[in-house]
Amino acid sequence: MTIHSFAVLAHKDSPFLPLCLDSLTRQTLKSEIYISTSTPTPYISTIAANYKVEVVTTQPDQGIAHDWSFALQQAKTKYVTLAHQDDIYLPNYTERCVPASEKFNDTLICFTDYSEVTARGERRHTSMLNVKRFLRWSFMPIKKNIQSKSAKRLSQSFGSSIPCPSVMYNTDMLSNFRFSGDYTINMDWDAWLRMADMIGTFVYVPQILLQHRIHSDSATSVGLGLQARQREDLEIFGRLWPKAIAAILARLYSQSYSSNEG
User: Fold this and answer.
1) Where are the domains of the chain?
2) Three-state secondary-structure class, residue 57
3) Are residues 83 and 9 in contact, defined by beta-carbon separation less than 8 angstroms?
4) Which of 48, 177, 196, 209 could be 112's S-S partner, Cβ–Cβ 3.0 to 4.6 Å?
5) End-to-end CA distance of the chain
6) Residue 145 and residue 154: Cα distance in Å, rounded?
7) Is the distance from CB of 40 to CB of 57 less than 8 angstroms?
8) Could you tell me which CATH number the domain at 4-260 has?
9) Are 234 and 138 in contact (CB under 8 A)?
């Protein structure tokens, strides 16, 4: 029985969508695959037909948080990964993440390390990647899981260390979970903080199992250009720290954004 799904988050006509689907069909442990979109187009329909995957559609112009929540709700399997349409999942992603999650009866999310892909090729070491790896190592130096609410919350107190596209969600534990529309960039960081207050385990697989594409049209790149990411970082740090410390952390954290330039 299939225990895992990939919900591919498709927005308009990404030229990278076929590469993403190629990577999902080549997994060593097979999963269900479906495309979730609020911007259905003939291009998406054609690609879906070529790969023999279902397209589920939600209403447009409701925001990214709504689109992610909708995609999550469509899963019929215990685990689901919200696959970003521009990214590539290495063949053993599912094979590594499912058993790691199944070791615990209360896994909330399982996530992995990742590299970046630009027009110049793959990058395994950038300021952003190194910062996130340091944060994950700091809170999970030996045991690659954390369960207590305080430890999970602390793990997110110095920045969003969990790579969003790599996350495998346990729908049994998160059946009522919704991403917050209060954010346009940091829906994921807000989600990890709210999950930290839930009963359950965060599981980390410390291998690079995802290639995250960096390009000028990505939501992160657009958000950085509009300064939305910096504003939202400061707001979330402000939930965790006194105002003066939050401002310092937000300023330091933003220095790693230079690596988001392709």
Assistant:
1) 4-260
2) strand
3) yes
4) 209
5) 40
6) 13
7) yes
8) 3.90.550.10
9) no
* Distance, CA of 20 to CA of 210 (rounded, Å): 11
Per residue in 2-14, pLDDT (tens digit) is 999 999 999 999 9
Within 10 angstroms of residue 42's Cβ, the number of other Cβ atoms is: 8
Structure-token pair, residue 129: 């990647």
- pLDDT single digits (tens) 30-76: 999 999 999 999 999 999 999 999 999 999 999 999 999 999 999 99
Which residue type sits at 252? L
Helix (H) / strand (E) containing 64: helix 64-73
Provide the residue count of the chain: 262
**Alpha-carbon distance values, 129 to 25, 83, 132, 147, 179 (Å):** 27, 19, 5, 24, 24
CA dist., res. 204 & res. 245, Å (int): 28
Contact 184, 64 (CB under 8 A): yes
Distance CA 70, CA 30 (A): 23
